[in-house]
């Protein structure tokens, strides 16, 4: 047969055109990142060309089992009747990824961290926090109060029957994760990305400004942000309530956390305070800096490698 091999950063893609088979078969070796197809001599030439061109479309992507990536998302009804959208991919040690403000679980799926966690045998769980994406977007303040988002994560992990799990939050997702680790004893390790200690202040000026802008006040410094909210068709009311009810986990509560916590930020990211100062509030906290700013760090390979290594260590 004829063999075409293409080398990429993540692995080798091989397409085998065999003439000695009467049927089409496929196999995938996830660990090596190699897909191979045996194509019957009875297939017409044009079909072979089509299959070949389709195969090229994935050459630049990391090699993860395609069947796993096609898993459909689901919704569950949380403690107060709010429907929350989530996805579960892979098998192994479960990791819950919590997205940031004005985002969804899709932001994680586009990141190197998501792929690297799957490649290292983790089960990766993403969700759209209430008020975002495919989850319900209640227009009542009480739907976001009393740590409703934290309760959603706990309800989800209970629904999935997780006895133990890991959690990673980025930006506002780190704020939710920080409150979560003070309440859920099932968590073994946590990663707080893109965050310093500023959120521990109940009167954090940054949070208040975002809330004021989202409820309709004139906040000139957030004009570009508000334009983005409108251009993207986001639910401004739901976002406002998220900011209003955002957790402000106290240093006293963080001091009682007894699990390993990695606080990791970009070298140019002090948007929410100093990462090192947040790590000092947690008994087993450690801090790390990787290249990038607040917006770019989530998409960096250095961030992905650091959090994956941390979660793998000691497991």
TrEMBL record:
<keyword id="KW-0812">Transmembrane</keyword>
<keyword id="KW-0472">Membrane</keyword>
<feature type="domain" description="AB hydrolase-1">
    <location>
        <begin position="94"/>
        <end position="214"/>
    </location>
</feature>
<dbReference type="InterPro" id="IPR029058">
    <property type="entry name" value="AB_hydrolase_fold"/>
</dbReference>
<dbReference type="InterPro" id="IPR000073">
    <property type="entry name" value="AB_hydrolase_1"/>
</dbReference>
<feature type="transmembrane region" description="Helical">
    <location>
        <begin position="43"/>
        <end position="64"/>
    </location>
</feature>
<keyword id="KW-1133">Transmembrane helix</keyword>
<protein>
    <recommendedName>
        <fullName>AB hydrolase-1 domain-containing protein</fullName>
    </recommendedName>
</protein>
<dbReference type="InterPro" id="IPR050266">
    <property type="entry name" value="AB_hydrolase_sf"/>
</dbReference>
<dbReference type="Pfam" id="PF00561">
    <property type="entry name" value="Abhydrolase_1"/>
</dbReference>
């Amino acid at each position: 047969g004829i063999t075409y091999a293409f080398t990429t950063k993540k692995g080798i893609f091989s397409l085998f055109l065999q003439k000695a088979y009467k049927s089409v078969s496929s196999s995938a070796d996830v660990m090596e990142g190699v897909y191979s197809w045996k194509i019957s001599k009875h297939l017409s030439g044009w079909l072979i060309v089509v299959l070949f061109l389709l195969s090229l479309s994935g050459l630049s992507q990391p090699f993860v089992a395609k069947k796993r990536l096609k898993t459909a998302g689901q919704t569950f009804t949380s403690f107060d009747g709010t429907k929350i959208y989530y996805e579960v991919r892979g098998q192994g040690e479960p990791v819950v990824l919590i997205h940031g403000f004005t985002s969804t679980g899709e932001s994680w799926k586009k990141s190197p961290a998501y792929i690297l966690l799957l490649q290292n045998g983790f089960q990766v769980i993403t969700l759209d926090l209430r008020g975002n994406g495919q989850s319900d977007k209640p227009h009542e303040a009480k739907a976001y109060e009393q740590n409703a988002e934290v309760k959603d994560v706990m309800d989800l992990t209970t629904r999935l029957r997780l006895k133990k799990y890991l959690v990673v939050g980025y930006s506002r997702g780190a704020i939710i994760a920080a409150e979560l680790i003070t309440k859920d004893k099932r968590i073994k390790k946590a990663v707080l990305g893109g965050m310093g200690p500023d959120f521990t202040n109940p009167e954090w000026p940054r949070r208040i400004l975002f809330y004021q802008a989202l409820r309709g006040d004139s906040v000139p410094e957030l004009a570009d942000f508000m334009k983005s909210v409108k251009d993207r068709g986001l639910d401004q009311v739901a976002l406002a309530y998220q900011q209003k009810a955002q957790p402000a986990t106290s240093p006293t509560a963080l001091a009682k956390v007894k699990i390993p916590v990695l606080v990791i930020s970009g070298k140019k990211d002090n948007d929410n305070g100093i990462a090192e100062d947040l790590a000092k509030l947690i008994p087993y906290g450690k801090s790390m800096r990787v290249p990038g700013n607040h917006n770019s760090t989530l998409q960096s390979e250095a961030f992905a490698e650091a959090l994956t290594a941390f979660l793998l260590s000691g497991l």
